[in-house]
Amino acid sequence: xxxxxxxxxxxxxxxxxxxxxxxxxxxxxxxxxxxxxxxxxxxxxxxxxxxxxxxxxxxxxxxxxxxxxxxxxxxxxxxxxxxxxxxxxxxxxxxxxxxxxxxxxxxxxxxxxxxxxxxxxxxxxxxxxxxxxxxxxxxxxxxxxxxxxxxxxxxxxxxxxxxxxxxxxxxxxxxxxxxxxxxxxxxxxxxxxxxxxxxxxxxxxxxxxxxxxxxxxxxxxxxxxxxxxxxxxxxxxxxxxxxxxxxxxxxxxxxxxxxxxxxxxxxxxxxxxxxxxxxxxxxxxxxxxxxxxxxxxxxxxxxxxxxxxxxxxxxxxxxxxxxxxxxxxxxxxxxxxxxxxxxxxxxxxxxxxxxxxxxxxxxxxxxxxxxxxxxxxxxxxxxxxxxxxxxxxxxxxxxxxxxxxxxxxxxxxxxxxxxxxxxxxxxxxxxxxxxxxxxxxxxxxxxxxxxxxxxxxxxxxxxxxxxxxxxxxxxxxxxxxxxxxxxxxxxxxxxxxxxxxxxxxxxxxxxxxxxxxxxxxxxxxxxxxxxxxxxxxxxxxxxxxxxxxxx
Amino acid sequence: xxxxxxxxxxxxxxxxxxxxxxxxxxxxxxxxxxxxxxxxxxxxxxxxxxxxxxxxxxxxxxxxxxxxxxxxxxxxxxxxxxxxxxxxxxxxxxxxxxxxxxxxxxxxxxxxxxxxxxxxxxxxxxxxxxxxxxxxxxxxxxxxxxxxxxxxxxxxxxx
Lengths: 551, 159
Hints:
The complex is a heterodimer. Chain A is an alpha/beta fold. Chain A has a single domain (9-48, 58-550), classed as FAD/NAD(P)-binding domain, CATH 3.50.50.60. Helix content of chain A is 22%, strand content 18%. Chain A has 11 helices and 21 strands. In chain A, strand 1 (9-12), helix 1 (16-27) and strand 2 (32-35) form a beta-alpha-beta unit. Chain A starts with 8 loop residues before the first strand and ends with a helix. Chain B is mostly helical. Chain B is 52% helix and 0% strand. Chain B has helices at 6-19, 21-24, 36-46, 61-69, 73-86, 99-111, 117-134.
């Protein structure tokens, strides 16, 4: 059936995957329309880092800048693991509940032109090659239907376009590193953790970071303000608004409609996608397209597919896997004050990383891996508000003097770990809540399994051991996902695989059921990896998909 | 991972702390409003003037806290009940007590059970007061900090 559209492809969502796909398709000569539900952000005016009260200002919230998300079953808290509770010196225990609750941030994301890359710190990670063969090698989860070597050229392409700095250790994950920019210098707290880790048998190295150490494409180098997560006003951070989207728009072939919420995918009589419909500026719209790429992330993409089927089963869902296999990330952070340490509030967040326990099977008795990161800046311990309201107690003149002396002595280490798909963890349509457009909320259900709890215990123990080895007298704050859902990275809800009965999309992101429907976000991940930040893998997959699409 | 959103964390901390059923029952409709003078005096015990920075009241922190309480009605109730309780601790309103007497009351509150209004008032007013105070540029003298992270950043080397 002929489709009337000035565009060769329509992409829903402008985050890591949507932006990378758009750029690649535009360079191939296609005309692309991105429909982005959220607003545009202007780094010069929206990011608060020149304001004296900067510490009170997080990444800005704008109308429409978060998706409609609710929470179902997040699990119950067993007293046996009470030492995994989140707490800090100033507040005490954070959660007083018998069940796991969403944190203040919950599913932490940005809906806007650039997506969650706008507030990410810019870690640029490649998956561990063995993480893609979890089912074959460990009998759990699912294998990827492609190999690391299939993906590696696309990693190189993304790293080159974005500008990634780092000096990773040689190994199967990094067959070549010549295209990387020079590594950033390590902050004072990262150096302490590197040395403490070495004494504990851990290898620490400079993290690969999408933050420029050499200017590129009129973007300046990083000046180490430490606040990537509040939005980068300089443009050295490789968020997609200043990389893929800017380059795609420069081709003259990309149109972006912000504030355009797609509420339904419309099928034609031939079993192919005909159009999408939605709401923009309060008015309904319908846009026909020959190719539809969904890139709203592992929560909003299954929501749209489930909500689009008037029969209730969900589009592209003959496998029954749309919304299933939801994977959150396990996180743990231990922080404290280290007497004698100074200037720890200066530098690049997440500047050092340890992959020692990243390979699946690297932790005894657990399937899946984890990684460790120097996180003093990433967790916001960089100003007096954070010190006074988190890791220090007391009051009065003595407290004020003590706070001045302590500034720069905070140190934090974080671990990020893998979860394995479980039938109790999924995204569904909320039966009770709908958004202003009448679309049911995406309801997240995510329960920590015995395997997840075992890995979380290991992560906490290792973080505590690192701080102790570094010389921290006692932690001043510990936070983790045992008592609160706090996922920045989520995966798996439109799993890729070779078998249509078991997967939603194939190895190139094309829906098994609908041949002009593609998915370009982390919902296609069959496994999450051992704590790697996913944006680079999402982008590499999107480029690979785009190349196949134009063949 | 993300930097912690201060405002959301603070709102969440207040909501969590104030909504526990056993504590929420104590937040009966207060007979009087928030005593701003007493709140200012209380905050000055937490954050007095010293050689480098002014007292909380000199920066109007009590007004910031009261304004913020408008977003969390239960916090407003806690401020009203807490300042009313403070005014019962001596001969006359708290703000009229001697510095020594004020200090003894606050020291007792710091150690008090946080399941009850004096202890919970100490916890939450300290959190909000510290946040507003140290967000003020006049409070940051003596710190090894730029006025804001940008535009200068913190170029290396760092020792």
